[in-house]
Amino acid sequence: MSETPAWAEVMGSLSNTTGNSSLEPHPKDFAVSCGKDMYITNKDELVGQSDYFAIVCNVGKAITDRKIKLHPKRQREVRALMHFFKHSEYIGPISNPGVSTPTSACEESCNQAAGEENGFTVEIRSNDQAVIHCFPEFEDNCLIDGDMAVKICRIITTHALFQVSRPTPRSSPSAAQKLCACITKFKLTPPPSQKNNEHGFQFIEFSYYRCQLDLLPRPIQLELYLFFWHIRMRDTGLSSNAVFHATMFDTAVKYLVPEMKAPIAHAFRHGVTPWINTALCSDTSFLRAVQIIWAPRFPVGDSQHDELADAMIKVMAENWGWMQHDDDVRMLMMNHEYEYLYYGVVHTARMRRKKWEQKLWDPSLSSGELS
Length: 371
Description:
The chain has 16 helices and eight strands.
């Protein structure tokens, strides 16, 4: 027998509005319907958690009928809202009863290793004991696959201090030559610079690379450590759907539930996966979430989205090593309404790089923990 879905227990009971379930009138029972979902709840508890419900549950027919109907367009968000009312917990979308949440095409292909279709792998290692203290997995060869590996390569190869030697046309094909060809294929072509980094970042075979962190220039390392820290901080128990978190925050504002804003911002901060290529998945696209979150903040001065915007800026700062060279991000940031966001991300990234530099190589100057 399958387990009862968590959301079916929200607010006491849940039934389909098209079914034969009926509500027994009790002094404190109140029905909230949204689409095909119906929630039977204690009215006093409901109105005590939201000024919106305190108003709509005490006007007109709601007083005598003891029920209200919410717009079905927000059905998924209302499920998460009711789950929060019941359990004081927010993790993201709550699944339909008996229906598993389908995995998007973007998520299915995001972890492809080298050798698989569109696969990519980076083997990472460090001999720096300070780095190993923070990232023990790098003491031995650590394999990272898929979109995450592509972003690591982009951080390295697009940095101003990175350059591989480019053999003359008459020379025989070498690892460096193959590296140049492969990073071009994945849009990782580095700009001209002063340094060769072939020992820090080596081509092994097609779509497979080896990175010796301590052999790379420290500025490149710092960009990588910000990205690795973002990955380390991620909580897999939270939804990675950045768009849902953004619309859920808007729902918390609409239904006047201020206590829900901080958990949503936390879920965004520690749940989203911006490195996954979601350009073709508008329902989960990180950049679509950025637009939803930032729109109410422009012109700057509207503070109702500050908690979520601050979480978004931290996420973008930790991914800025590759984001600053991403065509879609660059196009978005070129719009004047995102100028304040751009400078906020750049400033935050700079401050976090400084903290990592102090943490790893000058502990006496370290100021505060990373969050």
